[in-house]
Amino acid sequence: MNDLTRLGNNLERFDFEYLLNRALSKVPSDIDQRKGSIIYDALAPACYELTLMYLELRNFYHAAFIQTTFDNYLDLKVAEQGLMRQQATRAIKLGRFTNYDGDPMAMFLGARFATIHPTDSIIYTVVRNRKEPGTYELECEQSGVVGNDYIGNLLPVDNINGLGSAEMSTLLVPGQNKETDDSLRNRFLNAVNSRAFGGNITQYKKEVGAIEGVGAVQVYPVWRGGGTVKVVILDAGYNTVEQAFIGTVQNLIDPRLEGLGLGTAPIGHKVTISTPEVKLVNVEISIALSGDIGENQVKDNIKLALQDYFLILRRNWDIADELGRYRTIVFNAQIIARLINVSGVGNVTGVSIQGANEYGDLELTQSGLVQHLPVVGEVIIRAN
């Protein structure tokens, strides 16, 4: 238990009963102290107000320290180091429009289109045109990662004469959710504990990580000789990014890959922006079912448990050791620990990852040449 927790617990003991009993203990014993007595009714309101004061004092104390502060108080605290909470942003995707004859069709800015979904359609607005005829950028009207995933046909919200088809494809700029307290707190601690200077790894992680749509960053210095730097990025949902967004980040950091200092990278640094390769990890699981639960009843929950674990792996994908080395390991024991808590699973009798020996772990490649990002592949379940 740390000092902050101790002080918080110490303040919590000053509740109404505690304060009232302390006050009444100061009253002479020959005076009636029962509930409803004059002295009781005189002290009770004051003790109640003191209880509220102690609660406010506890909250005020916690709001003053980075480990325990929250919400707007956290925003004020990190501002002392020049940091700001990353706000939710909207996804921008590529849209193509054709007329009845299948030819590219000009579209007016502000036109609105909806995704094809029976209940939760998402609206996108045409915001700017591209060089290719009939091709436009569409911005999601909802902020956050909700606008990143949809690919397919669109329906016009308003009638558009001559429209033959509307289709949305490439994710140009990923949308991101408002930064959480934990993420902002960790970014603050990294900023004050790691000194960024002259294009070192910390500086690259700070500069690239601050770009809207970037969720994680790996940095590989001198990956192809002196002066070369490779920066590998994920989007705000911890997935790989599209080539179009790689180009956007490349233009911000080192647009010509010549180390001329035309972007934010220092002069002499030839920076390559990329995204990792998706590594589909197949998992074979042997389980013992509990009660009268059938295999089909637990299959979906098992897959969800695996996806939750792999999301944690992707969130930690850019954490390096003290020598700047990245490691991503799919641990067999972690899979078992999560599956054993799935409703209907009585026991996990065996797990094989990617065809390896039973109970073996899988370490993915993380190097300057190749970086892998783990994603759940085929899941084979054998129920006993």
What's a quick, concise take on this entry?
With 384 residues, the chain is of the alpha+beta class. Helices cover 30% and strands 28% of the residues.
General description of the model:
With 384 residues, the protein is an alpha+beta fold. The protein folds into four domains: 3-64; 90-173, Translation factors (Elongation Factor Tu (Ef-tu), domain 3, Beta Barrel), CATH 2.40.30; 194-274; 277-383, no CATH class. The chain contains nine helices and 14 strands. It has a six-stranded antiparallel β-barrel. Helix 4 runs parallel beside helix 5 (181-193). The protein is extended and about 100 Å long. The model has no long low-confidence stretch (mean pLDDT 89).
Work out the count of structural domains.
4
Show unreliable segments. none
Distance between the amino and carboxyl termini: 44 Å
Q: What's the count of strands?
A: 14
Helix/strand order, N-terminal first: HHHHEEEEEEHHEEHEEHEHEEE
Output the strand order for the largest sheet: 1-4-3-2-5-6
Secondary structural class: alpha+beta
Please supply descriptive tags for the structure shown above.
384 residues, alpha+beta, Elongation Factor Tu (Ef-tu), domain 3, six-stranded antiparallel beta barrel, three-stranded mixed sheet, 9 helices, extended
